[in-house]
Every structure is written in structure tokens, then in C-alpha cells.
Amino acid sequence: SAMTIMDYSGHIVGVVGGVGKKTESRSLNRASQTPQQPGSTMKPIGVYALAREKNKINYSTVIEDSPVKNYDGPGKSGPRNANGKYNGDVTVQYALETSLNTIPVKVLNQIGFENSYKFLTEKLHAKSLNEIDINASSLALGGCQHGITTTESAAAYAIFGNQGKYYEPTTFYKIEDAEGNVIVEY
């Protein structure tokens, strides 16, 4: 079990890196050291945020919810939505609310796989991703090779509450010496 809670300034205010009684110091912290596949939580940060920044979409943009040709190789269409159905024309807002799978893949095709990967790794500092993840399954649907940590996810999602500004996660605000002089300040 893992969880990271962060304010909009990058300060980690709560973290859970495991469950049960603590039996050792400096042991594995699943929140910051164990990437997991993010699944649908990747859609807003891997696709929609960059597409919105590039003015490719807005909440009322209409896109057809239908299979994407050659999604999983030549002649193979997909992805399937969780309910196995396609809805025809839908707004991006509806696709986000209902976590449709086809729409983020179509939007990813518009913004480009490399652009999405660079956005995640360079701007949102998703350090757990690697070049093997430059594909629709990873970038649009969260089926990454290793995934991302809850700390990386919390920092990435904070951009939605602070007008797009990214803050590097930190567990300290400042360090002072014995006389109260500030040595390091975040």
C-alpha cells in the first residue's frame, strides 16, 4: 500500500509507504521507491493536459468514441472501453468523466507520442518511465513497463490545481543552524 499527499507548492504533507508495524529503519518506501502501473490515472497527465496546453482540445471538443485502426498492430483495432461498448460522438469532458479508453488514444495520436513522453519525463519529472513506454498503452492508458510512483503522480496532478505550475516534491521547507540562520530553504 502506498500514498502521497502533496500541497500545491510541492510540499509532501503525508506519505504512506507500506502497511503494518514498522520493523526496520530506512526500509522500502513504496510511495517513492516502487513504481506501479498508473492505469487510467495516466490519461489526464499523459494526454489531456498536454493536448489542452497545445490547444488541441477543450472540454467541449467532440471526438468519436470508436475503435482506433491498427491500435495493437496491423489490422488490429482497439482499445476496448471498460464496458465493451463504443458511444459515438462524445465530448472530451464526458470521455474524462467516464474514463473512456479510445478518446485519449486518439488525442495522443494528435499530440504525438514523443511529445507526451517528453511532457511526462521532462516537465512532470516522471523519472520511472523509460523509452519502452513510448506507446499508446503506456502514455494514454497507463500500462507502463514499470509505472510511476505515487509521489511522481501527486506532483504531476498538482499542476491541475495551480495553473499548470510544477513543483518538485520535497519533505522539508527549510533547514536552520543552531543560531536560527537559514542554511537551505525550499
Task: Note down, in words, how this protein is organized.
This protein has about 190 residues and is α+β, with helices and mostly antiparallel strands. It contains 7 helices and 6 strands. The protein has helices at about 30-35, 40-55, 90-100, 100-110, 115-125, 135-140, 150-155; strands spanning about 5, 10-15, 60-65, 90, 175, 180-185. The chain has a two-stranded antiparallel ribbon. It has a two-stranded antiparallel sheet with strand order 3-4. A hairpin with a 5-residue loop joins β1 (about 5) and β2.
- Across the major sheet, the strand order is 1-2
Could you give the distance between the termini?
Answer: 28 Å
Strand content bin = 5-15%
Order of helices and strands: EEHHEEHHHHHEE
Radius of gyration: 19 Å
Look at the structure and give the mean pLDDT: 92
Helicity, as a percent range:
25-40%
Counting DSSP E segments of at least 2 residues, the number of strands comes to: 6
Instruction: Count the DSSP helices.
Output: 7
The largest β sheet comes out as:
2 strands, antiparallel
Global structural class: alpha+beta
Low-confidence stretches: none
Fold topology:
Elements: E1 3-6, E2 12-16, H1 30-33, H2 42-53, E3 62-65, E4 88-91, H3 92-98, H4 102-111, H5 113-123, H6 136-139, H7 150-157, E5 174-176, E6 182-185
Antiparallel strand pairs: 1-2, 3-4, 5-6
Helix pairs in contact: 2-4, 2-5
